[in-house]
Amino acid sequence: MPAFVHDLLTSLQRRGLAIGVDDCDTLRDALASGAGWASQDSLRELCVALWATSREEAAIIRAVFARVGAPEWELAPERQPAADPVDAAPAADPAAPAARPGDGAPRETDVLRLEPLPGPAAADRSGGGGLPPLPLLTGRDPSLLLLPQYPVTERQVGQIWRRLRRARREGPATELDAAATLARFAATGLPAPPVLVPPRRNTASLVLLLDRGGSMAPFHGYVDHVAGAIRRAGRLDALLVAYFHDTAGDAGAAGLLDELPDPFDPAVDAVLDRVAPLHDGRLYSDADLSVPLPYGDLLEALTPRTAVAVISDAGAARGALDPVRTLDTVALLKAAARRAAAVAWLNPAPPHRWAGTTAQQIARHVPMSPLTAAGMHRTVDVLRGHPSGVERPL
Amino acid sequence: MRAWRGSPPAARRLVAAYGSLPPGVIDLACHAAVPVAVDVGLLHLIRVNFLLDPPVVVPYEAEADLLLSPLVRELGDGLFDIDPLLRPLLLAGLSRRFGPARPRRVAALLEQYTMRAPAWQDRPELRHAQRLTAVAVIDPPLAADWLARAETSIADGTALLGKEWLVAVRRSVGDHATADRSPDGDVYDAFEALVSGTVETRTAAVHRLGELALVPGADVEAIARVLAAHADGDDGPSGRTARAVLDTITGLGPALTGVDEPSAVLERTARQHLLDTWRAVVAESYVDGAWRWSPGERRSSISDAQQLLCLLLPAVEVPQLALDRPDDTATEVLEALRGVGDSVEIPRLLVRLAAEHLRAYESGDGMPVFTGALEGATDEQAALELTEAYAVSVRLTLAVLGFVRVYRSTVSRRDLQEQCDEVDRLAGARLTAAMVGLLRSFAVSLFSDDSELGSELVRRHGPRFHDGLRSLIANFRTMTIGSGTVDPDFLERPGALFDCGWSWGVVRDAPMVETDAPMLIQQQGWASPDPDPWSTMLAVEAIQALYSERTRILGLLDEEQQRLSRALQLRLDQTCEYWLLRGAVAVDTPGDRLAVGAVITMAEATRGNRVGDRPGAAATLLTELAEGELPPVAYPLAGTEALGPRLDVNRREFAVRLLLELDRLARLGRPDDHDTALVGARDTALAALLMAIRAGPDDAPGRLATWAETFGAVEVFTGRVRR
């Protein structure tokens, strides 16, 4: 095996493409049948055709290929017809928008959107502002990756959140119920029309409450990626994304702090029951926090089939401990918990940062998991009704 | 972890960052320092493009760790920038730690991202600043040109962006220009300021070195050693500060992301020094197209050879400084030797100088002579040949032969080829003559164990000394040509001891060496047959050069020379074994002890890796000397009194020689040899040498007071680069 193949595979694995022995065998078979020999480009496109399952993965494979120092060659005469299954459009922008038109999913607002490059010789036309034109020096460097690579891939997020299912037969009866049809025929012995039932569909809905700004700023890209992936690939009946900053509003519970037995103990257990649910908090329907969405309206929309997930660092990223924030958060979640099926929390800051912060206190009342694949699996379990085992539930 | 008292603000912040952040965060910060500002998307792309593959793998958490750290300021609108105070240091760290190509790769990403990121489309000031920054990294002159033109349009009022923007952008581009200067150069400047300068500048230099040690990828080890040497040697404020800085640096320990290969700074510094010396030599010696031999002192074959070797030795020993292939001469070399001409003219001058030198030290009938400049000598004494001249001639002719043989293969002009052939012939003849001279200046003195010296040796070494010498006696039977032949039977007698090495010149009654080489004067010898440690050291060094890998690979010796070299080797081995056995017992003056330490070190080096306690002995000897004073000394030339007044030769190159030997000792490189005393002695000696170079003669800045010392310094730095 040439050295660059090893580099290629390990680099791809580090970028979340689990290329295994089977994939290598597939490549070998394709090579044995004569494909991919014409040039480095054709080998690269063969790998793309065999291994990539999305345009993002295709872009990753192309970029990694350009980095690993694969030999360059070009066999001029007669290209094998099988050589380039997807080479028809090698110039197709590997960094094109990741949206899939036509799947009906609401369009994501946020995943890093990339525009096609202007022509290579183009000086900066937009906003030249009367300044002399600046030449573009780099053109398109194939080894540079312009797609984000978050710790959990879009595919993984989709797989995880598809487990949040509440299947119900709903709507017009269009699906054949073979067993019932047979049973009826057996019972009556008469030919009769088939028994139809409404199709099963996922009626689970999800409300995502995303903390925005401040110490969440470093996580915006990742959180948006997760939210976008849930929206596109989670196959949920309904998804509502609402935004807030730190808390959804003042629950007026700060006075309760004076009644805590030990003012130096960050726990608020003693007054927990006395925190009133928050009904008039303020959320926003856009990431810039400019279009208000009254919390009351959102609460109205919650049903026992709705799961609520909060994504926030809860002060962990900066190591902040704020008992008022704990109380405000408790008030917010109490209101949701009364109407919704389940409430869970995803924290993008790693767990070792939670200790001694507001996050540690909130995690005593609401199931909190890190924003990783394992953490999201656990969160989906909780949202499906599995026991969460928090220390002091709301 | 807190930084030392009075530390520069940037250093304080870096220390705090090292103390609180995982190491990958600093690496990410180095990359994030390239753009004017980053947003979350760009920072993420920087990490996945540059910090996802070994050897440096930085996890996703580091992105948030960096953006929430004090290294970064939040500008609002999702933008962040690196603390402006730290940006130049982090940029320097980027190329130091990830190689000089890395900033350009990051700049390429920055340009592509800027062209595509939707968030920046409606922010022309940001887009322009980012793209200009990318251009400034990839093509600095283009950026400078653009800035000049932009200034005009802004002054005309035709541009949308204002002066404030221009000022900010200039500062950002300026950071890149600062970082482009090599951090090694900064370390070197601070290092030099440390060994010279006033109390204030020394303290400032210590602070600066501390700051530079905190630059990611810095040669922490080298800087720490320099600081340690300074802390030991200076009780004043700068010494105290150096200790405080060291405490901080060592306290940070593995958090500091130093380079893998240590001492790169000192090595690069050494090459820089060689280039500086070349500059100084050319400025002083090549005036108005004419070469001046041995300016500043009385001319002799020795000083002329040393002067020429200052140019030639680095050129033949250090590949980056080679001059013999005009097409491959390095730019920094051309810059240093600009005074001579271009890459074509430099080697031509060297060939011409070699020819001039070789002809200048010939008698009227074309025989090589090896005289020195002896003070107050009669005519007869002035004609005496010196071992030192033989030794330096061996070094010079080997260098010349190696140089012209490579150079000749690159020239096609007939006259140049003929000139090369002529120099080749002359150098070969002089080498043969010098080897014969060395064969005739080898000295053995015999004495008994009841003599003053004998009883001292036996008292210090015990009876083992006798036994050790006995095993060497048989070797005298194989020495048949040249001086130093003794009757082994005499030595077999009980109580007989001997001493061997080289005398200052051809020894009394030295027999003629039979050789088929023509053109050879074999002077009558006048030197007393007592070995003189300093001459022994020079001879051992020269003879070792005859067996160097380079000499063998280039096949520099002809058949006759190989025969002579075998005879010399017997004497070399005998001398080495003898001094390994004897050590510095009954050697009193510092200069002689230094020479003995040198001989033992070279002896140990030729033996290969045999581990014993002897290099320990050499280390003790040399480090002791490093602690004391080494004043200039007048060496008596015993035997000259037969021809007039007794002559002396003045030596003052002890300090340089000491460093040379300490380096040689350090290169013996036992892995378990972490002798801090040796390390400290080397740093002290280096500091003294740099100071001496600084304080060199007024009319010849950049070199030491004499050509002997200047050549010594060249040898030191050549050794340090070649390693």
Provide a descriptive summary of the structure in words.
Chain A is an alpha/beta fold. Helices cover 32% and strands 11% of the residues of chain A. Chain A contains twelve helices and eleven strands. In chain A, helix 2 (21-32) packs across helix 3 and helix 3 packs antiparallel against helix 4 (55-67). Chain A starts with a helix and ends in an 11-residue tail after the last helix. Chain B is mainly alpha-helical and 723 residues long. In chain B, helix 10 crosses helix 14, helix 14 (264-285) runs antiparallel to helix 31 and helix 26 (559-582) crosses helix 27 (590-606). The radius of gyration of chain B is 31 Å and the shape is elongated. The interface between A and B is large, with 45 and 51 residues.
SS-based structural class of chain B? mainly alpha
Cα(first) to Cα(last) distance of chain B is 36 Å
Q: Give the N-terminus to C-terminus distance of chain A in angstroms.
A: 59 Å
Apparent shape of chain A: globular
Report strand order across the widest sheet of chain B.
1-3-2
Report the principal-axis shape of chain B.
elongated
Q: Mean pLDDT of chain A, nearest integer?
A: 81
What's the pLDDT, averaged over the residues of chain B?
A: 85
Total number of strands of chain B: 9
Integer-rounded radius of gyration of chain B: 31 Å
Order of helices and strands of chain A: HHHHHEEHEEEHEHEEHEHEHEH
- Fraction in beta strands of chain B: 5-15%
Beta-strand segment tally of chain A: 11
Biggest protein-protein interface?
A-B, 45 and 51 residues
Helix percent band of chain A: 25-40%
The stretches of 5 or more residues of chain B where confidence is low (pLDDT under 50) are: 259-264
Which strand order spans the largest sheet of chain A, edge to edge or round the barrel? 6-5-9-10-11
Helical stretch count of chain A? 12
Main sheet record of chain A: 5 strands, parallel
